[in-house]
C-alpha cells in the first residue's frame, strides 16, 4: 500500500484524490488516509502531491514510519467502504495524527 505522512497534516491539497482509480484516499479532519486494503499500488497519487506526503510503504522515511499504522488503523471502525467519495469528510483523525504539530509552511 501507499501511505500518507506528515506533510499532508493541515495541508490537505487533495490533488491525490483525483488521481486514484479506486477512490481509496479518505479525508479525515487534519489529513488524508489511504485505505491499505483498497489501494491497488498503482502509484498515481505519489507524484502529484505538491508537498511529497505520499510514499510506498517500504519507502516511508524513518521519522514518519508511524504513519503506516495510522493510515491502516484509521479504518478500524470503518471497515472497507469501497470508495471515499460517498463518505466525504470524516470529522476525526487517527490519535497519532491528531497529536501531531501542523506542517510548517
Ligand atoms: Fe495530502 Fe498531498 Fe493528497 S497534501 S491531500 S497527500 S495531494
Ligand atoms: Fe490510489 Fe495511490 Fe493507491 S492512486 S490505488 S492510493 S497508490
From TrEMBL:
SUPFAM superfamilies cross-referenced by the UniProt entry: 4Fe-4S ferredoxins (SSF54862)
Keyword Amino-acid biosynthesis (UniProt): no
Cofactor comment: Binds 1 [3Fe-4S] cluster.
UniProt keyword terms in alphabetical order: 3Fe-4S, 4Fe-4S, Electron transport, Iron, Iron-sulfur, Metal-binding, Repeat, Transport
Cofactor(s) needed for function: [3Fe-4S] cluster; [4Fe-4S] cluster
PROSITE patterns found in the cross-reference section: 4FE4S_FER_1, 4FE4S_FER_2
Protein name: Ferredoxin
UniProt keyword tRNA-binding, yes or no: no
Function comment: Ferredoxins are iron-sulfur proteins that transfer electrons in a wide variety of metabolic reactions.
Domain 4Fe-4S ferredoxin-type: residue ranges: 30-59
Gene3D superfamilies linked: 3.30.70.20
Pfam family, one: Fer4
Lineage, opening ranks: Bacteria, Bacillati, Actinomycetota, Actinomycetes, Kitasatosporales
Record-linked NCBIfam families: FdxA_Actino
Amino acid at each position: 500500500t501507499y501511505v500518507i505522512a506528515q506533510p499532508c497534516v493541515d495541508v490537505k491539497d487533495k490533488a491525490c484524490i483525483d488521481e486514484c482509480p479506486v477512490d481509496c484516499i479518505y479525508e479525515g479532519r487534519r489529513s488524508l488516509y489511504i485505505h491499505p486494503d483498497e489501494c491497488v499500488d498503482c502509484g498515481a497519487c505519489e507524484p502529484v502531491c505538491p508537498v511529497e506526503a505520499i510514499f510506498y510503504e517500504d519507502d516511508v522515511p524513518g521519522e514518519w514510519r508511524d504513519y503506516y499504522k495510522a493510515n491502516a488503523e484509521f479504518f478500524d471502525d470503518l471497515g472497507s467502504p469501497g470508495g471515499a467519495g460517498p463518505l466525504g469528510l470524516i470529522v476525526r483523525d487517527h490519535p497519532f495524527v491528531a497529536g501531531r504539530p501542523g506542517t510548517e509552511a
